[in-house]
Structures are given as structure tokens and as C-alpha cells.
Amino acid sequence: MKRFNNWMSYSFDGVEYSNKKNPTSIFSINFNNPLTNKNISYQDALFNNARIMRDMFNEPFDVMLSAGIDSEIVVRTFKTLKIKHNTFIFRLEDNINVRDVTGAVNLCMELNIPYKIIDFNLKKFFNNDALEIYNLTYAPRAARLPRFKWMDYLDNIPVFCDGEPYWKRELEGDYTKKSKWKMYFGEDYYSIGCYANRINRTVISDWYEYTPDITASYSKHQLIQSLLDDKLIGKQSSWSSRYKLHREIWPEVKDRVKLIGYEGATGPATDMPQYLLDFQTNICDNATNMIYTYYLEEFNFLLNCS
What we know:
By secondary structure, the protein is an alpha/beta fold.
């Protein structure tokens, strides 16, 4: 997916926006244009990001909603701005993702927005379709492959709510000394966009990264600055802090347990079906999964946003 003003892009083997030609193709991130709106607030960055999409593409959008905070914020932003969109929730067989579906439905009811549930047979997908799709993308994570197939169920521009800024503490559990923090950009995050390019489908796969403003203003926010300055003892990443940040815009945003979409009714967050784990081990683990990390000063330099 090309971003607004091509501010950031990805390459495989040095060719911008090329397809991944083999499992070991070298992935890289390119920062092409510096940030121009340096003083925008995080709220304004969210709203402007959505408005630019509305002006660049045809409404309505087809938003993929899970029980995660990332897709919740996209839906809340579109609703606040009255941007036309359809809300889709994919339901897997045997209650595999029942907690995810329940959370997504509850959010739609809370926001009073219509939604559509689409039943999707995950086991059948991995038996019949996953290998062919993998061979088009060499995506490094099996759990993402079903999302590629979901595009076939949608008539408008699909919106996958990836790209939310993610900071992680370098020293992890060691709080005896001050740590640096790193922002993460992983190859896997861009696999949906790579597949869309492969099949010539317009898709917004990394909603939060369409403009540079969200990533930059998020990192400048006072709460995140306190995190990066190691003032919030016990925090290992920006994961939980973002709830408080978003409550400044929508006070009703709730903290929630992180789900990955395969938990079942009672299983732990690490549970996945065995056939998915086997596909990961036998197929996807053969593919590279490059991850690039940047300290705050490096990131500010790349975007010229200090």
C-alpha cells in the first residue's frame, strides 16, 4: 500500500514496492519524505489521517473489526467524522475466536453502528487455500494468511487496522537502571499490503501509517514521552499506555486483555489451532521476517520531527 505523499515505503531486494520473490528476499523500510506538520496533536493526527483517506478514496470503506484497540480507534474515528464505512467481523468455526467476536459485537452495540458477521472456516482455509496464498507472498506468519482471503468477501476498499505505533523497552524487566526504548517496524506488518499489490487490489492495510502524523504525534504525546523517559516503572511497552491516551479523546474506551483471535471460549491468549501451528512450523518459518527498530533520536531524525 502506498502511503500519502509516499512518506514511507518498503522494498524487497532493493526494489520499492516489489513483490517478495522468494522466502529469503531482503525487506527494508524507506523514509522518503520528512514530516511537515510537526506540531499536530495526536487527536488531530487521527482525524486528519481519516479525512485524507476519505478525500483520496471512494466511500464506503470496509473496516475489519476485532476486539482490539487498534481497530476500535479506526471505527471510532470514522464514526466521529461521519465517514461512511461498513463494519465486518469474521467469525471462525467451533468458537475459535468467540471472545474476539463477542468483544467486537459489544463495541458495535455500544457505538450504535451496524455490523455484519461473516462466517469463515479456518481449518478449510489452511487445508485448501493457505499454501497458494503463501506462495504469492512468502508471509512469515501463518496467523495473518486468513486475512488475505477475507478480501474476497468485501466489495469496497478493505481497511486493516495495522501500523499503530509500538514502542518497546530495551532492557525489558531490568528496572535497576534507565533504559532506552525502540520503535518497531516488522516485515510481517506489511504482508497484507504486499498481497494486495500481488493481486492488484486497492487496500488500506496500515491505517495508522497512511500519513506520518499519527506515528510522530503519538511519540510526542506527554504520556508516551514519560514512558520513553522510563518514568512509568513496570511498563515494558506502549501497549497498555495507549488506552489512557485514547481515553483523552473518547473517555469510554476500556482497558482489555490482549487477544490474538484464536483463543476459543476459555483458552489462554497463546492458544492456536494445531493445524495453524503446523503450517507455521513447516511453511512460514522458512520465510524471513525482518524487523527494524529505531531509538527516538533516530526516528526523529528520519522524519525531521524533533
